Amino acid sequence: MSNREKSKSSIGSSPCAAPRTRVFEVDILNDIRHAEYLTDQQGYSMKQQQVEPPKAFDPLAALELAAPPGTEYSDAIVAYQIGVFFRANPETLQKRLPGGWKVADQWGPGPRGKLLEGANVVMGFHETFLESEKAPSKNKPHGRFVTFAAMAHNPSTDERCNISFTGFNADPAKVPGKYKDKKLARSISRKLSVTGDDASTLVSESFDVDTGDGSIHFAVDYSRQQPLWLYATAVPPDAVVFRAAADPSGRRIYWEDTLNYIILSRPASIDVTSKLEFKIDVPGLRDVAAGSETVAVIVRPYLFRRVFSSK
Length: 311
Description:
Layout: H1 3-10, E1 26-27, E2 32-33, E3 71-87, H2 90-94, E4 102-103, H3 110-116, E5 121-133, E6 143-154, E7 159-169, E8 182-184, E9 187-196, E10 201-210, E11 215-223, E12 228-232, E13 240-244, E14 252-265, E15 270-271, E16 273-281, H4 286-289, E17 293-310
Parallel strand pairs: 7-8, 7-13
Antiparallel strand pairs: 1-2, 3-5, 3-17, 4-6, 5-6, 6-7, 9-10, 10-11, 11-16, 12-14, 13-14, 14-15, 14-17
């Protein structure tokens, strides 16, 4: 008798037998599951018991984490991200914020607050490896996009959060996006070169955005140092919260697991760059870029993010 036949005859043979945890053999390459021995009594709701992964190729399923109170699961990504944190003219930036919110330059407790102090804008370059949404998506499972968000404070509620006010995506299906502020880019290109041995690793990378009416250029060369592993839950004070300038009533809370290379942080006196080029020449953003100062650059070759939104 084969092991599989033994399993069929020994598990759940009695109609009164208590349900047991499912045990699966998964052949990931062929998506073959050997679970024929399971009885009807052993069926269960995925919402109540999260033992079986939904699919061999769906690692971003919504059910693995419980949503914080007042929120529900929205979407998730695995991506390579470069965050450029800079200080723009507060008066110019204030024009992008909704009523009741003020430009801020404090990023909360912990390492983020120390590394980013003084910055009031973050520009995020993203290359996504995998995307998963609550509803099935027909869009590409990968792509590139750019975000702009201001750090803001609401004096009446004492809440601090990132407020997204614009961005660019080369995929028409992702415009205007979840924050209702993304614009269609003609192209977003990226280059990456890594050279290393047992003694050192040198990285050269760049992002170039053709917006159709302007351009954004970022390029950096740096020596890769020891990374910082940061884990932010979706519960304050760790939670990374975003709101949209177009509609600040809704919140998107980021649960993040990230590997961070701090290649520049002026507040922490860190600078391992040998070249840094950053230029924004886009109508509607030139005033934000004018006279700005780059405060920090953080490279995240591994960004695992799940997002929960307000109900």
